[in-house]
């Protein structure tokens, strides 16, 4: 019996003779079109995947910060007594002759140093525009109090680099804080 040659209507797009037998194959154009479609779909979904990853990083860092801070408060209560007894409202930082904030002079920083600093591992501490920032080892940071209203009632958490946050406190909340 003779081999039958397939026509496009019967499902073959290309018939080829190899070692005496016929085989079905795809043309280069069909392969390129398929790869193009896969590329477009990947490009459309990539931004959603990246955003989901960023959200996961923020959530994880926030959970870690929350846990770390609560553990530090519990350990400080063991050492210093009930937190109601060591809660105060603090004033802002002292300024040098040129108007620059002097590190470790705010009452908030003194309060933090006394009660919590021995229980929270900090990478570094810096003053940015009158804001005292405490950096953690995972790249996140936090600030006690806000600019113009230094109160221990406010804790701002920066899941990423706080230097990239521009604008007033109200503009930053929900975007990078």
Q: Overview of this structure, please?
A:
With 177 residues, the chain is of the alpha+beta class. It has a domain at 81-172. It has 3 helices and 6 strands. The protein has a 4-stranded antiparallel beta sheet, with no helix packed on it. Strands 1-2 form a two-stranded antiparallel sheet. A hairpin with a 2-residue loop joins β3 (124-128) and β4.
In short:
The protein has 177 residues and is an alpha+beta fold.
Query: Between the first and last Cα atoms, what is the distance in angstroms?
Result: 77 Å
The level of helicity is 25-40%
Query: DSSP helix count?
Result: 3
What is the H-and-E element order?
EEHHEEEEH
- Percent range for β-strand residues: 5-15%
What's the topology here?
Layout: E1 15-18, E2 21-24, H1 28-80, H2 107-115, E3 124-128, E4 131-135, E5 141-144, E6 155-158, H3 169-172
Antiparallel strand pairs: 1-2, 3-4, 4-5, 5-6
Annotation keywords:
single chain, 177 residues, alpha+beta, 4-stranded antiparallel beta sheet, two-stranded antiparallel ribbon, 3 helices
């Amino acid at each position: 019996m003779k081999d039958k040659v397939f026509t496009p209507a019967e499902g073959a797009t290309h018939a080829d003779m190899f070692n005496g037998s016929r085989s079905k194959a795809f043309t280069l154009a069909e392969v390129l079109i398929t790869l193009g479609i896969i590329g477009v779909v990947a490009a459309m979904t990539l931004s959603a995947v990246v955003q989901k990853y960023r959200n996961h990083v923020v959530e994880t860092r926030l959970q870690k910060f929350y846990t770390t801070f609560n553990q530090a408060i519990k350990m400080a209560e063991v050492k210093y007594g009930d937190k109601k007894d060591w809660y105060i409202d603090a004033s802002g930082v002292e300024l040098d002759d040129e108007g620059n904030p002097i590190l470790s002079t705010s009452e908030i920083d003194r309060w933090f140093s006394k009660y919590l600093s021995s229980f929270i591992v900090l990478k570094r501490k810096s003053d940015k525009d009158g804001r005292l920032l405490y950096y953690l080892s995972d790249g996140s940071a936090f600030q006690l109090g806000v600019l113009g209203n230094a109160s221990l009632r406010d804790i701002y958490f920066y899941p990423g680099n706080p230097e990239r946050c521009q604008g007033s406190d109200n503009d930053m909340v929900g975007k990078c804080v």
